Amino acid sequence: MELAFLGTGAAFSLERYNGAVCVDRRYLLDAGAPLLPHLGRLGIDPGGIEVIFLTHFHGDHLAGLIPYLCFRAFAAGGRPLTIVGPQGVEDRVDRLLDAAWGSADWQEMRANFPLRYREAGARGEVAGVAYETVPLEHGKVPGMGYRLQIGDRLLVYAGDTRATPALDRLVEGADVAITEATGPGEVHSHTSFEEAAALISRHPSTRFFLNHIFSGDPHGGAHDLQVVEL
């Protein structure tokens, strides 16, 4: 399994790019980073992404879609893409792209390639990946984490969340977990460094990578443009 961390920062970080992770050059977990240049810098074909899994609809997890979907329309050879996300994902992404490009131009772009949307629900399968979702608490915006069966590995991805029992349920039994650690001390609607460290200690058989970091470098923290082979 290859993990490419395109961005590992919190929404307002001055040190890091917004979050997105590419798995095995085929799957994207959220879409906040400058996807096109970062995929290019790491030698990953942007047109080879088959599925984007979105955890919630905050801008630092979506804004990379604005140029990325334009690229898919005009420069990726018409290869299909599926976007999986919470309820209302098609409407939310369409409205984002309408605002960015204008409705007529976006609809023309969208017609240039097979773009499919899927509301994640509790479980499903897409592009050979079986997944389950776990609802997570993150302020007023509903969010969820994913349990992704990729080959013989169980990869979990939390997006943004408070450190609640649901986060432990998400992580339970995982081979690899990508979860957040926004900052030290009390962090509103997010997981703190200390809470992330406690989570790691409760799941010693899981390999953790921490992201959504505002500043600093917590133990286990990933870094922008880091590529890990597992």
Task: Name the descriptors.
230 residues; alpha/beta; Metallo-beta-lactamase, Chain A; seven-stranded mixed β-sheet; 6 helices; 13 strands; globular
Q: How would you describe this protein?
A:
The protein has 230 residues and is an alpha/beta fold. The chain has a single domain, classed as 4-Layer Sandwich (Metallo-beta-lactamase, Chain A). Helices cover 24% and strands 28% of the residues. It has six helices and 13 strands. The chain has helices at residues 35-41, 65-75, 89-101, 103-110, 165-171, 193-202; strands at residues 2-7, 20-23, 27-29, 51-53, 81-85, 115-119, 123-126, 129-136, 143-150, 153-157, 176-180, 207-211, 226-229. The strands form two sheets. A seven-stranded mixed beta sheet has the order 6-5-4-3-2-1-13, with helices on one face. It has a six-stranded mixed beta sheet with strand order 7-8-9-10-11-12. Helix 3 (89-101) packs across helix 4. The longest helix has 13 residues, at 89-101. The protein is globular and about 50 Å long.
